[in-house]
Amino acid sequence: MAALPKLATSPAYYSLVGAHSFLLGQAAWHYRPAFLRSPPPAQPTHRTFTTTQRPRDQDQKQKQPSPPPSESSKSSSPHPSTSSDAASASLPPGWEDNADFQNITAFSQLPHRFFGHNQHIRVNEDFKESLRQILWQFRAPIRYAFAYGSGVFGQGKASNTDLSPHPNPPKAVEEWQKGGAKIIDFIFGVSHTQHWHSLNLTQHPEHYSGLRYLPYSSAAISHVQDDFGAGVYFNPFITVNGTMIKYGVVNLDTLGKDLTDWNTLYLAGRLQKPVKILRDDPRMRLANQVNLISALRTALLMLPEKFSERQLYERIAGLSYLGDPRMNPYITSENPNKVSNIVGAQLPGFRQLYVPLIDNLPNVAFTDARTPREGSWEKEDAIRFTGSNPRLDGVLGGEMGLGLSQDMDPIKRGNMVRRLPKAFRRKLYFQYKKKFGIPGSAFSDVLEASEDEDAATGFKKREGGEFERRISGEADLPEVMARCVRSTVAWPATAQSVKGAFTAGIGRSWKYYAEKRAKGGATAAKKAATDEEAVAPKVKGEAGVGKEGKRD
Fold first, then answer.
1. Average pLDDT, stretch 400-425?
2. Is pLDDT larger for residue 388 or for residue 441?
3. Looking at residues 27-54, what average pLDDT do you find?
C-alpha cells in the first residue's frame, strides 16, 4: 500500500490514465446512439451571376445552354470548341450582364468551374515551374501574375547567333528558348501598391532606379505608377534565379478596369494575345473573359462577311499596337512584322483563347471543311496556315488558315456594338454623333440608354437600339473603330514610354530602346534583302528575254 501514493505521483501513471481515457472516449463517440448523431451536411450550392443559385453539378451537365434573349440562337456547331469538355463548357446566358466584378472573391463564384480555362495556355511543365520559382523570390504578395512576350511564346524564327541575356538560367529555360534566348516579361497584379513597393524596396532595392533614394520612396513610386501612363511600374534587366527578366507592377483595380472598360488597352491588349498565367485570381479571370470576347466582337465589326483565321487573329493581335509609338516607322523600335509573326508562331494559343468564344457567339461560325471535329483541336496544331488539301487551299488561300463567316444582320451587329467596352464605346458614339449630326440633348438620351447599370433595377441587358444598328451598317465602321483604338492606345502608351526613363533609369531605358531599335532595324534590313533577292532573278530573266528579242 505504501507504493500507491508514490505511483499516483508518477508521470507515467497520468500518461497511462490519459491514454485509456482518450481511447474510451473515441470508442464511445464512434458507437454513440443514432439520436445523438448530426444530420449529413447540405449539398453545397454554386453561385452564379443571376439572382438564382444552381447546384454545381447542374452547371457541369449544361454543356450547351440557350443563348441570351438579346441574341438569336445559333445553329449547332459542327465541332466541339476545344480540346476537352472541361475547356469547352459554354458561357451561361447573361453572364456579362450580371457579372459582379467588385465582389467576387472565390473561383466557386464564377459561372461554372471550367469558366475561363481557355485563358490558361499550355506550355512545357518544367518551363512553367521555372517561371513560378521566379515569383517565389518576391516576398511582397503577388495576387495575379502572368508571363508574356517573345521570351515565353515565339514570334517567328529565332537567330542562333543571338547572345543569351540570361547569366545562368535553369535548364528548362534554356531548352524552351533554344535557338533564341530572350528576356522574360512578367506582370504582377497587387492589391496595395505602396505596401507592395515598400516590401520590395526592403528586399530588392537594386531593382529600382534613383527614385528609391527619394524621401518616402514607396509613396513616390506608387504615385508614379498609379497616376501616370497606364498605371504600370516596370523594372527591366533584373536577374532572378539566373534568368534575366523585366517585371511590371499594376494594381488589380487598375488592371480590372482596363480589362472591362478599355481605358488604356495597355494591359488588356497584352492579355488579348496568348500569355502564361502563373497565379490566377477569380476577379481577373472574369474580367479577362470580358476582355477577350470584347476583342473578338471588335475584330468582327472590322471584318467583312467572310474572312480567315489569320485575318481574325491578326486583327485582334494588332488592336493594342494601333497608336503605339513603338510601331512608328520613323522610330523603328519594334519589328514592323510583329503582328504577323505573333499570329503565325502562336496559332495554337490563339485557337485555345478564341475558338470557345467563337462557338458561343450566335453570329459567327467556322465554314471550312477542314475544321477539327469531336474536340480534336489540340491534335490539329499542324493545321497552321498551309493546309494539306490543295483543292481547299486554292479556295481558301492556304496561308490564311480556316475559313469563317459572320451574319451581317443589323440587329446582331447592333448588339455587338452595344456590348463593346464602356470607355471605348463612348468614343465610338461620339465619332458618329458628329457624322450623324445628332444634337446634344438627343445624344444625352442615347448615352443614358447605353449605360450598363440602372439605378433602380441594377444591371441592364445590353441590347442594341436604333443608334447602334445604324452604326453597325456604316461602311466606314472599320476605319472609325481603328481611329477610336488609336486614340485609346496612343497617349497611355506614349506616357508609359516616357515614364520608363524615370522608373527604369536613364541607362536601362536607353539600353532597352537601343535593343528594340536594333532588332527592328535588323528585321527591316533582312526583309529588304529578301525582297531584293526575290526581284533580282525576275529582272535578270526579263533582261535576257529582251536581248533575245533584240537578236531576233
1. 93
2. 441
3. 46
Integer distance in angstroms from the first to the last C-alpha of the chain? 140
State how far the Cα of 125 lies from the Cα of 148, in Å rounded to an integer.
16
What average pLDDT score do residues 72-89 get?
42
pTM, whole model, 2 decimals?
Answer: 0.76
Q: What proportion of the chain, given as a percentage, has pLDDT over 90?
A: 50
Are 394 and 107 a contacting pair, CB within 8 Å? no
Residue 190 is inside which H or E element, if any?
A: strand 184-190
Q: What is the mean pLDDT of residues 140-163?
A: 82
From CA 155, how far away is CA 350, in angstroms rounded? Answer: 13
* Three-state SS at 35: helix
C-beta of residue 318 within 8 angstroms of C-beta of residue 280: no
DSSP 455-514: TTTEE------HHHHHHHT-TTHHHHHHHHHHHHHHHHHHHHHHHHHHHT-HHHHHHHHH
233: its cell numbers: 511600374
CA distances (Å), origin 351, targets 87, 227, 429:
12, 36, 31
Least confident of 246-250, 291-295, 383-387: 383-387
- CB burial class (10 A; 0-12, 13-18, 19+) of residue 19? exposed
Q: Among 370, 353, 308, which residue's Cα sits nearest to residue 79?
A: 370
Dmax of the chain from CA atoms?
A: 140
Q: How many helices (H) and strands (E) does the chain have?
A: 20, 12
Q: State how far the Cα of 148 lies from the Cα of 185, in Å rounded to an integer.
A: 6
> Does residue 398 surpass a pLDDT of 90?
no
Closest Cα to residue 358, out of 90, 85, 69? Answer: 90
- Cβ(301)–Cβ(380) below 8 Å: no
When mean pLDDT is compared across 23-27, 41-45, 81-85, the lowest value belongs to: 41-45
Residue whose C-alpha is closest to residue 249's, from 289, 191, 202: 191
Whole-number pLDDT of residue 50: 37
d(CA 429, CA 179): 48
What is the predicted pLDDT for the residue at 95?
Answer: 82
d(CA 104, CA 285): 10
Q: In angstroms, rounded to a whole number, what is the distance separating the alpha carbons of residues 153 and 346?
A: 7
CA distance 370 to 248: 41
pLDDT value of residue 34: 56
Q: Are 140 and 297 in contact (CB under 8 A)?
A: no
Q: What is the mean pLDDT of residues 351-376?
A: 86
Q: Which DSSP category does 278 fall into?
A: E
User: Residue ranges of the alpha helices (H) in 47-192?
Assistant: 56-61, 125-135, 171-176
Q: What is the pLDDT of residue 19?
A: 47
Give the burial class of 103: count Cβ atoms within 10 A of its Cβ; 0-12 exposed, 13-18 middle, 19 or more buried.
Answer: exposed
Please enumerate in sequence order all residues whose Cβ is within 8 A of that of 27, keeping only pairs 6 or more positions apart, or say none: none
Residue 453 has φ and ψ, to the nearest 5°, of -125, 145
